[in-house]
Every structure is written in structure tokens, then in C-alpha cells.
Amino acid sequence: MLTTRPIKRVFTFGCSFTDYYWSTWAEIIALDLDADLYNYGRSGAGNTYIANTVAQADAVYKFNEDDLVIVEWTNVCREDRWRGNDWVTPGNIFTQGEYDDTYVRQWADPVGYLIRDFGSIHLTKGLLENKNCQFHMLQMVEILEQIDQQGRRGFNKGGAYLKLSEMYKETIKFLKPSFFTVLWEDNIYANKIIPDTKFYNGNFSDGHPTPFEHLKYLKTVFPKHTFKSSTLDTVTNAENFLRNFLKEKSKKQFAIYELSSEELKQIKERTKIKQSLNLQKI
Predict the structure, then answer these.
(1) How many distinct structural domains can be found in the chain?
(2) H-helix or E-strand spanning residue 12
(3) Which residues span the domain enclosing 88?
(4) Which spans in the chain are helix H?
(5) pTM attached to this predicted model
(6) pLDDT tens-digit map of 4-41
């Protein structure tokens, strides 16, 4: 079940699958439950950032029985760092532009990232279990199977990997199936990128779920929850606007981040399903 009792606040955490240029699962849930939304998602965020914002949100807002907390963990091969006055969240360590090649070759160890992040996941689960709130944990990709979202490269499943899998098996069981598994059968290129490229005249594709795909994911991982017809209508309207807008733009080749600030604002406003409240965080 998504919820077993009424709630007043929804807290969501994750990467760009939680907060993006258009609306996501976070807004759909808050709208359907008629609850205030506190969306801490951030594009490029890794699990270090995600775990930190869960702790910060609890320190400020004091999770309680009136809350639903949902954490979407991302792939482990990301490095988040605080620098200056903000977090640096460049995404996948093997494709980002913040850390140079020498650093990546010397220090980027996928199993090491797995060790680090399952410690964070386990501790976060323990925190939430002691808050009397309702909570769930999602995955962008199958964390134990896929190193990153760019390809299908897996882990070397020996030694530390096997020990880790056994050590955290109860925590691992708690994770819902990933977006990549539910939506694209763990092959984003064949089942997402290629079809989208064809639909958009060969000029556009984006590796993030659309509003309708977010809804499909929620229906799959929370099959006992019945979404209101008004929620379904709102998601459909957001989906139709997004696809029509991008279809019109795809007369020329482009990427989503290359659109003007005004165009991106228009997408955000016209696909808005539920407004997040202002957040207190570092």
C-alpha cells in the first residue's frame, strides 16, 4: 500500500527522477493524497546528497505520523561534494565534467561506492523506522545490478559484493523495483531512447520518465492504490502538453537543457501537477 492512514505532508528525495524540467512521481503522489509537498529532489544528485537531505528535512520538520516520506535512491557511481555555498552534484562519475580523468581512474571504485551508499541507505531506513512516519524507498536503477544509467555494465560479483549483498539483504528487500526495470525492462536505449528519437523526428530524446511514465511506475509498484480520476486527468494534460511542445521543437535537433529559460519555465508551469513548498536545507 502507498499509505495505510491519512497523511498531511509528503517528503520526497532523489535525483532528477524526482525533480526535473517537468513534473514527476513526487507531485503525482502529493496531488492524489491532497497533501503538502516538500520535494528535495535535485538533478545529478547522488546518494550522499540524498541521505543528507533526508537527515536535514527531519531535523527541521520532525517527521511524524502525519507524514509520508519517499526516498528515490539513484545509481551509486556518483560523488556529491559541498563546495563554496552549494552542493556540487555532477551525476555519474564516469560521464561528468567536474572530476578529471586522473581522479576517476585512481579513486572511482564501483564496489566502494556500493559499500558507501548501502551504509547510507541502511542508516536512512533505520532513521525513518523510528519516526512513526509512513515511508518507502525507490530505485532509479537496480542498485545491486547496474553501475550507472548510461549502459548495462554490472558489478564484479565476487568478494566484497557478495558480503555486502548478504549483510544488507533485509534493507535490499525493502527497495521497490527500479524505474529502469518497471518502465524500460533495464534497457533504456531499446525501450526509451530509440522510440523517443523516432517520435521526435530523430532530433530529440531524453532519458527521464515523462509524467505518464511516472504514473505508470507508481501504479506498478503500488498496485493496491487507486488514483483519483482527477489525478489521472491532470497527469494526462501534463503529458499531452509536454509531448506536443517537444514535438514542435523537434523540427530541429536539440537537448532539453539547450532550450531557453523562458521555454523551460513554460514546460515547468504547464506540466505542474503539485507545487512544492519552499524548503529549509543547506
Answers:
(1) 1
(2) strand 9-13
(3) 9-185+211-225
(4) 25-33, 47-61, 101-107, 110-129, 160-167, 169-174, 179-184, 188, 194-199, 211-221, 229-249, 261-270
(5) 0.97
(6) 999 999 999 999 999 999 999 999 999 999 999 999 99
